[in-house]
Amino acid sequence: MKYSVFAAGLLGASAAFAETPELTVYTYDSFVSDWGPGPAVEKAFEEVCGCDLKLVGAGDGAALLARIKLEGNRSDADVVLGLDTNLTAAAKDSGLFADHSVSAEFDLPIAWEDATFVPYDWGYFAFVHNADADVPGDFKSLAASDTRIVIQDPRSSTPGLGLLMWVKAAYGDEAPAIWEGLADNIVTVTKGWSEAYGMFLEGEADMVLSYTTSPAYHLIAEEDASKAAASFDEGHYMQVEVAGKLAASDQPELADQFLQFMVSDAFQSVIPTTNWMYPAVTPEDGLPKGFETLITPEKSLLLPADQAAAVRDAALDEWRGALSR
Q1: How many helices (H) does the chain have, and how many strands (E)?
Q2: How do 22-27 and 79-84 pair as beta strands?
Q3: Binning pLDDT at 50, 70 and 90, where does residue 63 land?
């Protein structure tokens, strides 16, 4: 009799555990880090979803799409968070993503109309440097200088791909010459953003490809005003980061709930001081003090998603050719 009671209790506990749905979100490594948005997002969503949110770091942003395409419909992921508009056309062409049902009033510099992908933050790419350094103010001056830079690989990193599009949008057919000039400035090309930024902080480069918002981290989190973003005369390329639901998800309703939660204040309010980007929907309390000190590009550059997809391979060949010489 005691065994029967024990067995019944065990089965009841197992059933209760089995009834807790799990939502798996693939994202980039810095998102799930201790200092990234992941821990706060996981806690806040689990408080309202009655589920287990599993955030999986899958490399840097551009590596996410490659992994999803490799796994196909067998993927464990329900949601992919961390693509951007340079990748959304290719992501749609894969046929692996489903349309969303999210409704939101976005605070973006561009109009947003996309039935498949939902934006959660945005920013401008920039080269970050020590504030007391005299640095170039455009790509041609950078190429002519002896400034050491570290950048990310466009095949695995969304900032790396963003730099490719930045040069292409600013210079068009002159892009190969720009890369040839920059080749001897590049200390190394890292797989992802975290490694590159760490090298800069350790003094291995004078500038690192990052964001205009990166100095806010040092200012707010470390009370350190020693970092700045260089303002480039050509303008700065914009990044809009997005998330999408996989068509093969076995938790489609929960995935939709997460995407809607993503544009809520509970999610958006943690973005400025964890992901160090501008939120897609301005939080109720506004932006943190310190963001007003950041540079605002006089010219914003952004290739439409279909155009970015069309020039990507050629731009990658130009980049690879210049750096291999």
Answers
A1: 13, 12
A2: parallel
A3: confident
